[in-house]
Amino acid sequence: MIKRFLIILIALLSVNVALADKSQQSIKKEQQRTKKEIKETAKKIETNKQQTKKQLNLLNKLTVEISQNTQELSQLQASIDSINKSMKKMTDSISFLEKRLVSIRENYKNSLRSVRATRHSTSNIAFVFSSKSFADAYRRVRYLQQFNTWQTNKANEVKDAIAAIENAKNELVALHSAKSKTLEQVASTQKTLVKNQQEQSQVVASLQKERTQLDAYLKKKQKEAQKLDDQLNELIKKQQEEERKRRLEAEKKRKEKERLEAEKRKKEQDQKEKEQKEKGQQPSKPDDGKKEEPKKQPEQPIVDTEDQVQQALSSNFENNKGKLPYPVTGKCRIVSKFGRHKHPTLQYVEINNNGIDIELLSSTSAIAVCDGTVSAIFQQSGYNNIVMVRHGSYITVYANLESITVKPGDKVKARQTIGSVYADPDDDNRCILHFEVRKETQKLNPEHWLK
Q1: Using the 8-state DSSP alphabet, how is residue 427 labeled?
Q2: How far apart are CA 329 and CA 364, in angstroms?
Q3: Are 353 and 337 in contact (CB under 8 A)?
Q4: pTM score, whole prediction
Q5: Residue 338, Cβ neighbours under 10 Å: how many?
Q6: Exposure string for 64-93, b = 16+ CB within 10 A, e = fewer
């Protein structure tokens, strides 16, 4: 009995161990599956973010291109209108010249008929020798000379009229050719415009479908922009404080120098008076008991060269408003404008840009827009490397740089390369520079400063 009980007990324990082992394996597999799902979800979220970013950038690009296409079509239409006016004017001119040529030829023909009828088709020699006197012969010779001159002039007039008609016709042909080319450009631009508009509609539909992802991405970009703004303001205030301390120190040194010079002058005067007394000389000042102050020599003003440099830089920058070069080399276009505004296509999206975003089309180089001093270089998520250049009280900011060719404290010249713009591998290697203009912490519209 006891033996059977022990056998049953051992069997039950074996089953429990087996079940426990199987349960642990099941839990382990479930944990692994959960980890895999979390990893795949995180990857999918990141992919969606990248896709949203890519689509939004593409939408901005298409919006700019559509605006350029529309502007180009307007300019081409104006060109066609101008060509049509020129063609009408040229056609009228040709008609007028042809009528004039007919009139010149008719007058010439009638004049010749009249002369021949008067002279009865006699030769020029017979016409002269048939004169009744020498005076009459001389008059006839003069008449023949004038007639030949008139005849030559009329022939030249006909030639000139024919040449003018020919030139007008050639110009009309050139205008027809120019109109044909312009119409081809119109057709090509319209085709591109339609293609861009269709692609834009698809991108808008896709972004609207993924509204949650778009809102999340825009919030992230807004946070990055705010962080950049905060960091720039902090750096600028720090620079202002350093400048205030520098000025106070300079003023302290100036006053100390004045005090030491005043003490030196007093000692020299006291020594001079002492020497005069020892020699028994009368003091060279009135004996009224009052001590005459030594005549102060005019001092040269103390010049702060750093202040002069800053003022010169401010003046140079301010005087070039509307004339500054773009902060990049080669072809480019602005894909996001300054300030708070509705997105041109996604009306429910509001954008607040503290600068402008410039897409580089033919290079990756960022350049300084004016002479200045590199006042800070730092990094931030979403903007990669950032360079601040101070132009007196004005500041330019170059963000989203991949490499930098300057360092803090460097003096830079206008159009000097300061680095290369980051090419985003997740967005077909597009290069977009974020550029800002500030007067200390006051944000200014960069487009008002660029030419």
Answers
A1: G
A2: 7
A3: yes
A4: 0.64
A5: 22
A6: bbbeebeebbeebeebbeebeebbeebeeb
Residue 314 included in any domain? no
pLDDT in tens, 248-306: 888 888 888 888 888 888 888 888 887 777 776 665 554 444 445 555 555 555 555 66
Tell me if 420 is assigned to some domain. Answer: yes
Contacts by 141-147, CB closer than 8 A, 24 or more apart: 147/115
Q: What is the pLDDT of residues 354-370, one digit of tens each?
A: 999 999 999 999 999 99
d(CA 227, CA 9): 69
Closest-CA residue to 388 (of 355, 363, 364, 360): 355
Q: Strand runs (DSSP E) across 301-424, as ranges?
A: 332-336, 339-342, 350-353, 356-360, 365-367, 372-380, 384-391, 394-404, 411-412, 417-421, 423-424
Taking phi first (over 0 means left), then psi (-120 to 50 degrees means alpha), and beta for anything else, what does residue 400 get? left
Q: Which residues contact 266 (CB under 8 A, 6 or more apart)?
A: 294
Domain's final residue, options 209, 231, 250? 209
Q: Distance (Å, rounded) from C-alpha 42 to C-alpha 45? A: 5
Helix, strand, or coil (residue 392)? coil
Task: Give residue 193's domain range.
Answer: 47-209
Residue 245 falls inside a structural domain: no
Asked if residues 356 and 383 have their Cβ atoms less than 8 Å apart, the reply is no
What CATH code is carried by the domain that includes residue 368?
2.70.70.10
